[in-house]
Write a structure and sequence with these properties.
Number of strands: 10
Order of helices and strands: EEHEEHEEHEEHHEHEHHHHH
InterPro entries: ClpP/crotonase-like_dom_sf (IPR029045), Enoyl-CoA_hydra/iso (IPR001753), Enoyl-CoA_hydra_C (IPR014748)
GO biological process, one term: fatty acid beta-oxidation
Pfam family, one: ECH_1
Strand order of the largest sheet: 1-2-3-5-7-10
GO cellular component, one term: mitochondrion
CATH superfamily of the largest domain: 2-enoyl-CoA Hydratase, Chain A, domain 1
Protein name: Enoyl-CoA hydratase
């Protein structure tokens, strides 16, 4: 497998025989806030993830350092914005990537992305969380879209994704007031799947990644596409028609795993999944 692109202030490691990619933002002293240059690096990392069929699942989390309160991602590095172009930034990297904040908030990933929220997720960091498929949070994690307090708006997809997840009134509370929502309340609202002790956040995320690998990768990818379509298209018939023509669904129906699943059941054995079919 080709090595991932080297990204400043971001580390990558592989777990579970290389099938799980763990992405860690390594800027704990800045509460893992992200300047534009790092976000472009993450953009290339997520391109790598999407294009590499050997990787079945990805996890994103925040790095930690002794004596510093843990954070998942505090959003945009405002110091880098206020200083315009820093000495290490070029005009090409001064703007955010087309894939959105952190190289992922606008993405329609075909494969699962798990957020291991080990601390605060604010602004763009919260938008990363909102675009993940499964979210595990520590008991001390907090979630907020406080952009209005800085004279800007949550344009990294938060304005679109949050109401779909929590409903209009709760979205208004978070966005217009900049309200900070603790982990347990975020779980009640549907932002978070599970709340666990801080020390267990990444461990639990890896366990969930293991569970995702029990099923066929093609079936997981096709199912994710259908769920996204149903949440974005109000008309059930239109959502169904669109799903039937999606490349992920077509690949699943014509792939080896569609035959392997029923065959392994009939033969009373564990399925031997072949991995993602080429799109």
């Amino acid at each position: 497998m080709k090595a991932p692109p080297v990204t400043e202030d971001v580390s990558v490691r592989f777990e579970r025989d290389g099938r799980v990619m763990v992405i860690t933002i390594e800027r704990p002293k800045q509460r893992n806030s992200l300047p534009a240059k790092v976000q472009w690096g993450m953009h290339r990392l997520f391109d790598y993830y999407e294009q590499n069929d050997d990787i079945w699942c990805a996890i994103i989390t925040g790095g930690e350092a002794p004596g510093v309160p843990p954070a998942f991602c505090a959003g945009q590095d405002l110091k880098s914005v206020n200083s315009a172009l820093g000495p290490t930034e070029s005009a090409a990297t001064s703007k955010l990537p087309p894939s959105g904040f952190g190289g992922v908030s606008f993405r329609n990933l075909t494969k699962p992305l798990i957020a291991a929220c080990n601390g605060g997720a604010y602004g763009g960091g919260c938008e990363i969380v909102l675009n993940c498929d499964i979210v595990v949070a520590s008991e001390s994690a907090m979630f907020a879209l406080p952009e209005v307090r800085s004279g800007v708006a949550a344009l990294g997809n938060g304005l679109i994704l949050l109401p779909r997840i929590v409903g209009r009134h709760r979205a208004m509370q978070m966005i217009l007031m900049g309200a900070v929502i603790p982990a347990k309340e975020a779980m009640e609202w549907g932002i978070v799947n599970e709340v666990v002790p801080h020390k267990d956040v990444l461990k639990r995320a890896l366990e969930i990644a293991d569970s995702l690998q029990v099923g066929s990768p093609d079936a997981v990818r096709a199912s994710k596409r259908a769920i996204i379509n149903s949440s974005e298209i109000a008309d059930w018939y239109l959502a169904t028609d669109k799903t039937a023509t999606e490349k992920e669904v077509i690949a699943f129906q014509g792939g080896k795993d569609a035959k392997e699943g029923p065959l392994s059941f009939a033969q009373k054995r564990k399925p031997n999944w072949s991995g993602y079919s080429k799109l």
